[in-house]
Amino acid sequence: MIRCWVSLALALGVFAAEPVDLIVSGRQVVTMDAKRRVIPGGAVAVKGERIVAVGTRAEIDRAYKAKQRIDRPDALITPGLINTHTHAPMSLFRGIADDLRLQEWLEKYIFPAEAQTVSPEFVRAGAALASLEMIRSGTTTFADMYYFEEEIAAVVKQAGLRGVLGQTIIQFPVPDAPTPQAALARTEAFITRFKGDPLITPAVAPHSMYTLDADVLKASRAMATRHGVPLLIHLAETSDEVTTARERHRTTPTRWLDSLGFWGPQTLAAHGVWVPQADITLLAARGVGLSHNPESNMKLASGTAPVPAYLAAGVPLGLGTDGAASNNDLDMFDELRTAALLAKAVSRDATVFNADQALYAATLGGARAMGLESEIGSLEVGKQADLITVELSALEALPLYDAVSQLVYAGARHWVRDVWIAGSAKLRDRRLVDIDTDRLAANARRWQQTIRQVPRA
Ligand SMILES: [Zn+2]
Known about the structure:
Elements: H1 2-11, E1 18-30, E2 38-40, E3 42-47, E4 50-56, H2 57-63, E5 64-79, E6 81-86, H3 102-117, H4 120-136, E7 139-146, H5 149-159, E8 162-169, H6 180-194, E9 200-206, H7 214-227, E10 231-235, H8 239-249, H9 253-259, E11 267-271, H10 277-285, E12 289-292, H11 294-299, H12 307-313, E13 317-319, H13 332-347, H14 355-361, H15 364-369, E14 387-391, H16 403-409, E15 416-421, E16 424-428, E17 431-432, H17 437-452
Helix pairs in contact: 4-5, 4-17, 6-7, 13-14, 14-16
Bound molecules: zinc ion (ZN).
Zinc ion binds at residues 85, 87, 234, 270, 322.
């Protein structure tokens, strides 16, 4: 009722326009809200780090007066994209070894390179490169699983990106922890340090069921529950994992983890390629989110996650790129299109995983999969102001019949013109704000020299 009076009063010009920090207007606002409103001639008003209004430009201009306004008459305004699975520092391994079988790729190239190079300096350089690639391609939140996650958090915070950052726990000695117990202790310290941070959500990231024993997996779950933080894990990425679970535990990866009490809300499983229907139903019942990584799964020939079955079961589904060594980029526009096309190709049904479902997975679906849907994922009043403009003036973006379809089937990361995260500009007119890109490039080239010298296993 009060809202009606306020609207009426505003319409009559009774109140002066309310001051806000920013108004962004565009050709259409693609809200991704529950009604999936697309507002022609729309605008978004931002105060501090939050969205205070979404409506037509005329409505917003009547009610608000902005310190700064950005008018993009040929652009779509959309929520920032959410990448639900990556290993940010692995950007420095982009292209290190391609066209290989997963086991050979891991054992001959990735593990030896990681053993020799992963250090605080390495993860800082890699995470910086990844952060800027993500910002430039319209990603505003990402989920990470790697080592020295506190160093990654510092870089990500400095870049102004939002991260759900999972400290890796693994059974064998790794550069940041000689034992899984040391990894658990490091994870707890990391959580304590970053809990409550406005941009960083610390998380527990036990690597997978095949690289950890039952005790460490249970301890990981207990830690996530104790601190109320997300739990991230790789699940059934390859058929080998299913074989391992059968041989070791006489069951499936999902069911063995369930027998440990591992699954619960705010739990994000990456890949989920080899998961039978009964286990999908179980994941749905436990409130587990799934990160679908079609390009990485294709490149490593891991298989294809049964996306329609996850959606039908009601599993919150997000999209992810995985690390740049198996993709080889962190481009969510690529992932959007690939996800939509792959689901159709394997099911031989063109109606499967339509453009709206794909864009939902890359925005609010990803937020739900990580338990962050009340804060991010759509352009709605009260949510974090994580938004992007996608320029449609280029010839290859014409004509425009349907905004969502255009984004998914024709869109590309170079169409991204502006990015705001928590109301703060990170990309303005395609330029990174306050970033020394020359220094970053020099750093990446320097690391390439070091990584090149690592002997193959
Ligand atoms: Zn991964």
